[in-house]
């Protein structure tokens, strides 16, 4: 390595660290923007073809398409979130006023039977509800600071998604050309990352939504109130494989049993174990493994690690980063082992030639004599 290369690598390391320090407070939003842009890019290409005949240039068609997708995505995301927050706030208020539809008496009777002690759950539940209400909605200065940070992050996500949708293909092309790898290896790596990421994102999200909808249908059949609210909650929790939806339907089945609705409790438990769990054990591996080749256990590790490191965004980013690592390993395995296999006959042929010359050298003295 000459001085020029060493100097450039030093500059790259220094400015890479500086840029990371600058973007670190909004790293989760940057990663979220990359995920959104990646998911929306196929729709972007289709909408550009739709808008192109009605716009004076392709650039304008790309901009109109990107804005349309961003607005539609905001509506699709914001409305369910607002519904969940509103429903949660109203439920917490009802519980704090003692007006909840939850039957406390059967639960207290069951606990008293197991513990041989008189237990009053109403007051602790009210206190816990008041604490939750204050935590989520009572700390006005903290809530304003959080909303300010989230607003800046959302604005950053919107701008990044727009420019990634418009110039994302050019960015991928530039990164491929700037890569120090050979063009064939770079193309293979990009294809592997695309396949793995698509499987991790779309397969993971598809399985989560389907599982939550099926579980919500079970709630509707047994008469659980606020089915839409619990279904949306299960959509979020279903991103945790194996345990996500179980956190909701298992306590619901236990509650039905305690309050005396034994048949509904048995039905919901059997429905959850057989039908809902079927998604985790069969559908999710098929959908994800077909593209991403990731075991559900690996997905679970990525989700927990991502949530611990990046918060809510880690639900999506954690499995993707593991998928990218798998894609890099797979590219190395297929590409460079193929080169080694192709080089093996050459080594064999050269070895055979050397061996033949050795035989000639051994026989030549005998021929002379």
Automatic annotation (TrEMBL):
Subcellular location: Membrane
Recorded coiled-coil stretches: none
Any one GO CC term of the record: membrane
Biased composition (Basic and acidic residues): 340-349
Transmembrane segments: 7-23, 29-51, 63-85, 143-166, 198-221, 227-249, 256-279, 299-329
Disordered, as annotated region: 340-369
Annotated Pfam families: AI-2E_transport
Record keywords: Membrane, Transmembrane, Transmembrane helix
Topological category with respect to the lipid bilayer: Multi-pass membrane protein
Family listed: Belongs to the autoinducer-2 exporter (AI-2E) (TC 2.A.86) family.
Stated name of the protein: AI-2E family transporter
Organism the protein comes from: Salinadaptatus halalkaliphilus
């Amino acid at each position: 390595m000459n001085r020029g290369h060493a100097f450039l690598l030093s500059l790259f390391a220094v400015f890479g660290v500086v840029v990371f320090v600058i973007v670190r407070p909004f790293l989760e939003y940057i990663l979220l923007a990359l995920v959104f842009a990646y998911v929306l890019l196929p729709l972007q290409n289709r909408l550009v073809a739709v808008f192109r005949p009605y716009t004076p240039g392709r650039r304008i068609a790309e901009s109109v398409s990107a804005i349309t997708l961003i607005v539609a995505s905001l509506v699709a995301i914001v409305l369910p979130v607002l519904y969940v927050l509103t429903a949660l706030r109203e439920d917490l208020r009802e519980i704090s006023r003692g007006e909840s539809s939850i039957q406390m008496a059967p639960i207290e009777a069951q606990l008293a039977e197991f513990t041989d002690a008189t237990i009053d759950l109403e007051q602790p539940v009210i206190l816990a509800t008041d604490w939750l209400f204050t935590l989520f909605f009572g700390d006005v200065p903290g809530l304003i600071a959080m909303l300010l940070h989230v607003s800046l992050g959302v604005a950053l996500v919107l701008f990044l998604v727009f420019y990634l949708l418009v110039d994302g293909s050019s960015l991928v092309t530039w990164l491929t050309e700037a890569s120090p790898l050979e063009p064939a290896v770079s193309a293979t790596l990009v294809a592997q990352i695309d396949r793995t990421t698509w499987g991790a994102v779309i397969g993971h999200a598809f399985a989560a939504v389907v599982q939550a909808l099926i579980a919500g249908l079970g709630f509707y059949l047994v008469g659980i109130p606020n089915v839409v609210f619990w279904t949306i909650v299960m959509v979020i929790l279903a991103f945790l494989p194996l345990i996500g939806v179980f956190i909701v339907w298992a306590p619901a089945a236990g509650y039905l049993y305690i309050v005396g609705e034994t048949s509904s409790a048995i039905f919901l438990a059997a429905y959850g174990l057989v039908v809902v769990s079927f998604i985790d054990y069969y559908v999710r591996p098929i959908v994800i493994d077909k593209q991403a080749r990731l075991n559900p256990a690996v997905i679970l590790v990525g989700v927990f690690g991502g949530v611990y490191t990046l918060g809510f965004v880690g639900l999506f980013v954690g499995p993707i980063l593991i998928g990218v690592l798998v894609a890099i390993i797979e590219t190395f395995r297929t590409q460079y082992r193929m080169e080694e296999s192709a080089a093996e006959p050459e080594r064999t042929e050269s070895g055979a030639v050397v061996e033949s010359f050795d035989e000639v050298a051994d026989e030549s003295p005998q021929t002379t004599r």
